[in-house]
Amino acid sequence: MASAHSIPSIEERFEFTSGAKRNLMIGGAVGVALILVGAYLAANGGGHEAAAHGAEHAASAIGHPTPENAGKAHEAAAAAHHEISWVARIWANIWVNAVYFTGISVVGMFFISYNYLAQAGWSAVFKRIPEALPAFLPVTGVIMLITFFFGGHDLFHWTHEGLYEVGGPEYDPIIAGKQGFLNTPFFVGRLIFYFVAWYGMWRVLRNFSLQEDEIGGTDFYERSIKWGTAFLVVFGVTSSTSAWDFVMSIDTHWFSTMFGWYTLASWHVSGLAVMTLTVVMLRERGYLRAVNSSHLRDLGKFVFAFSIFWTYVWFAQFLLIYYANQPEETIYFIERFRGYDGYFKAPFFITLILNFFLPFLILMARDAKATHSILKVACWAVIIGHYMDFYTNIMPGTLGSNAGFGPLEWGFFLLFLCAFAYSVASQLGKANLIPRHHPMLEESLHHDIA
Amino acid sequence: MAELTGKYLVGVYDDDDTVLHAVPRLRKAGVKIQEVYSPFPIHGMDDALGHPRTRIGIAAFMFGVTGCCVALTLMIWTMGIDWPMIVGGKDPISIPNYIPITFELTVLFTAFGMVITFFISNGLSPAAHNYQRFDVRSTDNKFVMAIDLGRNTMSAEDISRALKDSGAEEVNIRQF
């Protein structure tokens, strides 16, 4: 009720307690322990039975005599011979998590940028939370660069030199035709450019925001709008190209013109879920009392709406491919439905349930969006669901029949999650939790959607 | 809305802020307010009046479920059972093909259902002309508060005075 409620203090500072630090450290250590156990199991053949599955897949692919499937069968058979070691599984796991958490981080910047461009008032009070996310970008950037240098050969089929030798035994005219874009120097250049551009522009906005806290005035706000708009232009292009690079180029033959959107939708909704979850968790610890139920409901609506948006893009991509029935396109879904003994069928449907049905049904009611416990369930569903989304997108093309879901997968996810939470929490502690001189703060404090 | 009968006190206010602050004050004094009419929505007014929340959301969900079921039944029956047809090499009953139309009919039923429900529950229809109005100026520049004298134990004079004290420009009596 706008007329009567009193505004709690806006002077508050998040304290990253030693207890919280210790818990995150323990979480990370458990992650490392799980990774070691998982690696040990995988190295001793405890994972998927590679050769048998590869051969079966090859056989099943031969069962459908299209040129594309024949090629696939050849690939699968080759994969069965070429021993993909447990090391590849580690690289693939790092890649899945690095891509996922890169997305969540950069979406923090995306969120504040479009809020600046729209001159949104309501979000000012919790603006520090999206603002804290991109600090993790250098970590994932370096990890991805290292992974590409050491594990790129295992992860990306297009890095194999033989594909480009005309007349060679491995020569692949389709992949050779993509060499202008998919070659190591250009790829590494793009990778570095993405992270430098995203992180650099975030630094600028973050500095404006921190200076505004001390000095005040509308000057920083005006400049933030300009930089935020510039970021949106950059991100408009790089969100798509990075999705092609990080995820789509793994299945080198396959392409989808919707893939950039699809990945952006996935990143965006997971980023929103992380923001909402952070706001809820801070409130439970006594912070952000100035965030009222209207803010929470709007955040809940964001998660709700973009879960549906993700599903819309997911389904639009699926339906076009399903309906057109072009072999070179449908192979992507066949691989996930029937390939590798139907191993990816479970993650494929878990993704849909966690990312669409669950948030859709539990966040639909009006009051649910302002209830801490329900928001937490929905946000965790989305966060885990979109991890599964990237798992389903990346694993079949990199590991195929060697993929598994065990301690290794849980360990890497936990380790990245704890590291990310540590980074966010330490960023939150660096400034007043509420941007006290933000020109829209007054509007935000009185945010009321009745 | 059920037809209004009886005797009403009508307070006319000039400012939305005045009326918003008058509501809790009058309710505290023991006046039962029927409704406030305003040319535009006033933030916080629903809470101030203490009205129970609208149930149109539940109606919307029911309409949506109905639309979803109608669409699926229609397509599965006509395309798959009554006269099985193969389109685009797909099975006669292939759910992915049906999703766009299911979505459209869900939205259509929800939208129409909500509009019709809203019209019925407010007594609005293209055929209705005898709208009961407390004061036509509530569609222009005034904020109008209606108080049902039959539901109040306080005397009309007391309520009238309380209305004036809370900032009402004029207080009229309206009989339906």
Automatic annotation (TrEMBL), chain A:
Keyword Hydrolase: no
Sorted UniProt keywords: Membrane, Transmembrane, Transmembrane helix
Transmembrane segments: 23-43, 94-117, 129-150, 187-205, 225-247, 259-282, 302-323, 343-362, 374-390, 410-429
Keyword Transmembrane helix applies: yes
Coiled-coil annotated residue ranges, if any: none
PANTHER family linked: PTHR43044, QUINOL:CYTOCHROME C OXIDOREDUCTASE QUINONE-BINDING SUBUNIT 2
Name of this protein: Quinol:cytochrome C oxidoreductase
Species: Dyadobacter psychrotolerans
TrEMBL record, chain B:
Keyword Transmembrane: yes
One Pfam family matching this protein: ActD
TM ranges: 56-78, 98-120
InterPro entries the UniProt entry points to: ActD
Signal peptide start-end: none
Keywords recorded for this protein, A-Z: Membrane, Transmembrane, Transmembrane helix
The protein's name: DUF3341 domain-containing protein
Source organism of the structure: Dyadobacter psychrotolerans
